[in-house]
């Protein structure tokens, strides 16, 4: 099932930003734990673009990096974006872990030569407190849950929770790049050979600390795993790097980091492992998710492997696992995230429909936000604030719902109207909830601009006379459309009913025969 429903739960867990005339005041505490390589620093850049997040600290795990260099790069990036007050905590652990190849660990030092980072003056760093010690102290004092984005091993968080299990209640959502659930692992050394103590089935972040991996999976946290299953679809490509805007600081720095990497220079395959993870934290609907019980393997040739558990007994816990990435949507999301000015608010929290980008701006719309009454849950408030439908006035929302046959008695708040409108297609499984012919004009008026009626959307890029017939997933339907349609909540409906709904909404279906296209049209209707 496409992850829109899961995304609603995720968004509901976050407090909405408080917006004034120009700025949004951050309200969601977050800790980043990375292991210092190229893509880890790019994650930091992306998070620093979001003023709706309260970055409490950056912890650095000495896995895929030389620790001192990674700490220095992190501190310089924070200084570059005027966030020097965010503490950088080094992870200090006994040498009992499976090391990354030395040539990979040295890459953190290379980033000190990236122009925008190199030019930052930094006072001497003297951090005496280890990351896991700071984390224990922080969580003890925290009033509410804190989210975690983990792009390296999970050792810091696991150490703190193993020592003080009661602190698990202070941990919010945990997005972790790790594992290879239904695909091959990536445990190879710099010569592309498997280490002697691994069968190659694990992924490096989980393999570095196999015991910590197994222990964390048993804690029952709100864990969102981003494994190789999802990241294998997003290699770093030269054409993507070229699209980054060199006139904007963060985008230019990201371009410099990617372009100078040894992987890029040698034409080796390098993936957006960590940048996909932060993208999914910021916008979960960029992929499909599957909920499953998982187990970690702490020893033997399978050490570090994360696999499906046959059942949820024996200490295994259910985890949300990223599976199929909407690659075009993710690429556009990442470009926009890097290109926007720092501290510009939550403008890269996009509303996505049918795989196409639709941008909203909480700061620009907050001034017209009506008072939210007690009948609306916090979850509804938060989701509505981030919905692409927020741009529509209440009158148009009511017109759409009336046309769809919804009973609006007692429903007056904009949040409730949005929640109803977004759920009606997924929750309606018979033609009885379709609007009658007499209501078609209302549907058309609901999508008007400046009082002018507009026709409902046709198939993207075609007209009634030119739209080609392409049954059975013909070449006219893009791979993105096929993939999205397969994972849509509407896939369970037969073609006949999809056509009936679209016809009732006044859509011209000449030349549109594929189920994928019908689903795309029906979902797109809500935001046009």
Automatic annotation (TrEMBL):
Keyword Ligase: no
Example of a GO biological process term: purine nucleoside catabolic process
Basic and acidic residues biased stretches: 186-197
Keyword vocabulary terms for this entry: Glycosidase, Hydrolase, Signal
A single Gene Ontology CC term: cytosol
SUPFAM superfamilies: Nucleoside hydrolase
Gene Ontology molecular-function annotations: purine nucleosidase activity
Signal sequence annotation: 1-20
Protein family membership: Belongs to the IUNH family.
Protein name: Pyrimidine-specific ribonucleoside hydrolase RihB
Organism name: Cladocopium goreaui
